[in-house]
Amino acid sequence: MVQSAAATVDEYLAELPEERRAVVAAVRDLVLQHLPAGYRETMGFGMICYGIPLSEYPDTYNKQPLCYAALAAQKRHYALYLMNVYGDGEDERRLREAFAARGLKLDMGKSCLRFKRLDDLALDAVGATIASTPPATFIARYEASRRK
Question: Per-residue pLDDT for 5 more than 70?
Fold first, then answer.
């Protein structure tokens, strides 16, 4: 599944085959456990999204909630988008070091952490990364990036 038309997270999960649903649900639980207050879980762009609602921060370039993280079951892998890692080299460095310290290969683009199994993730490091940026800090980084 590359992109879903599901309107809710429950619908999205119900669309997935049982094995893939279990992986997505486990990562979703991890995200929700570590997500700082102020972010909300929604569906967006065919994925489970975690962001700042427009009612709290309406000044986004695309008129969509400011996306902090997203989770998707892609055709050949799973994807966890970590926008705070994209926006902060220190967050990225810590995540890379944590994966290396555990002997795990980090398959990541600018923000997209790709994995094929739950065991491919350094779960504690991913949780710490998600927990590391409160909404006010994320908004400040976003605004600074838009001024360039």
Answer: yes
